[in-house]
Design brief:
- The protein has 2 domains: 337 residues, Alpha-Beta Barrel (TIM Barrel), CATH 3.20.20.80; 39 residues, Seminal Fluid Protein  PDC-109 (Domain B), CATH 2.10.10.
- Strands 1, 2, 3, 4, 5, 6, 7, 8, 9 and 12 form a 10-stranded mixed beta sheet that branches. It has a 3-stranded antiparallel beta sheet with strand order 14-15-17, with no helix packed on it.
- By secondary structure, the chain is of the alpha/beta class.
- 33% of the residues lie in helices and 18% in strands.
Length: 415
């Protein structure tokens, strides 16, 4: 099953934006020593708790029309981002790059983004792997060589956190998984206190055969990260209930693999969601995020994140004509609605927006009567809900229109 990280190549950061980022960049190595006190302050990692790394959403800083991270922080109270993705060079080799094209060694653009975030009291984690491109675990011959490549990233940016995003096809390659898990173990030993998450595919059973093999590899190497997270989307999931069921099953997998009790397993378990419309046409609304957040907090889970900040804004039209985008969610929303759930998981209260955001649709656009949770509907009845017209397929009461649930409602599109 595919877990694509949607990329809009036409939406790569503009040259002007990169120039601004470069002018503020300060690398965390001797390659680019800060020249001013302000630059040095911006380059230093902020003193934030691991609760923020556990709630850091994914952000592509060089692609998918990246939002201004400072504006996101001001609007939501967020303090950490998960920058994606560190890969092997597209032309081959065992050196770290951003997206396979921008060498970390000579980077100034991402360094500028990091400096901006740190200047506002935040910090970042780097995510290695993802769905597309060649991973360093595939390109480097040993765990030691793989770890050395990642250590360059840690040293360059002064990182306190890393995410190992092990997906298709890499996690189907046992040698590559051995290298990645071995590298994570070495980095954990070499960088005391570093926060490490391991993210992999989710299935109704928690995770699939390859995910379980990855867990067995971690066990055989004696490696335990801060969390193992699954991605319960793009696999036939429908809303929060399917996701929480997968999390319950994944908890059982962790127990059986590592010999943990349920509480210990939850303390090492995380979730990475996809906000809005998934690659395979599943829908996850704000109400789904709230339900999963309630599950995660009540079970004292270790991580709650999503793909991605780039997508946490409304499309035009809101449903994006039934397509999935890398730059917006394809569901009605206000800017950064989904990010605010992550802020709550970190233990903070998102600020109230000083300017109310207009509703997705203006009054009068929907001609069908508004949905009522107390009304009885029969096949053929039409209602308006969240800016869309919905038609009941059979008798229903108390089930809000959505593409999930029992399937009683047919989405007839925006009003």
């Amino acid at each position: 099953m595919q877990r694509r990280r949607l990329r809009t190549l036409a939406a790569v950061v503009s040259t002007a934006a990169l120039s601004v980022a470069a002018s503020t960049a300060v690398a965390a190595t001797t390659e680019a020593a800060p020249t001013t006190a302000a630059a040095q302050s911006a380059a230093q990692p902020a003193a934030i708790g691991n609760n923020w790394f556990a709630a850091a959403p994914y952000l592509m800083p060089l692609d998918n029309d990246p939002p201004d991270p400072g504006q996101v922080m001001d609007a939501t109270g967020l303090k950490a981002f998960q920058l994606a993705f560190i890969l092997a060079p597209n032309g081959g080799g065992c050196s770290p790059t951003w997206d396979g094209t921008s060498p970390v060694a000579s980077d100034t653009a991402v360094a500028g983004v990091i400096s901006q975030i740190r200047a506002k009291g935040g910090d970042v984690s780097a995510s290695v792997g993802g769905y597309a491109g060649t991973k360093l675990g595939q390109a480097c011959g040993t765990p030691e060589a793989t770890a050395a490549a990642y250590q360059q990233v840690v040293d360059k940016y002064g990182l306190k956190a890393l995410d190992f995003d092990l997906e298709e096809p890499e996690y189907e390659n046992s040698a590559a998984v051995h290298n990645e898990i071995g590298a994570a173990r070495i980095l954990q030993q070499k960088n005391p206190g570093i926060y490490i998450s391991v993210t992999t595919a989710g299935t109704a059973d928690g995770t699939g055969w390859f995910g379980k093999q990855m867990l067995n590899e971690a066990k055989s190497q004696g490696f335990v990260p801060d969390n193992f997270s699954i991605m319960p989307f793009d696999g036939g999931f429908s809303g929060a209930a399917a996701q929480t069921s997968a999390l319950t099953n994944f908890n059982t997998v962790l127990q059986s693999t590592f010999g943990w009790d349920s509480a210990t397993a939850y303390a090492h378990e995380g979730i990475s969601q996809m906000n809005g419309r998934s690659d395979s046409g599943e829908y996850f609304y704000q109400s789904d995020f709230q339900a999963v957040l309630d599950y995660a907090t009540s079970h004292h889970m270790a991580r709650f994140t999503n793909w991605s900040v780039n997508r946490d804004r409304q499309c035009t039209p809101p449903d994006n004509n039934g397509k999935t985008s890398g730059t917006c969610s394809s569901v009605p929303q206000s800017p950064w609605d989904f990010t605010k759930f992550l802020v709550k998981f970190a233990g903070a209260t998102p600020p109230t927006s000083p300017t109310p955001t207009p509703p997705p649709t203006s009054p009068g656009q929907c001609t069908a009567p508004a949905y009522s949770p107390t009304a009885v509907y029969v096949g053929g009845n039409e209602v308006s809900y969240n800016g869309h017209t919905w038609k009941a397929k059979w008798w229903t009461q108390g089930e809000a229109p959505s593409t999930g649930g029992s399937g009683v409602w047919q989405d007839e599109g925006p009003c």
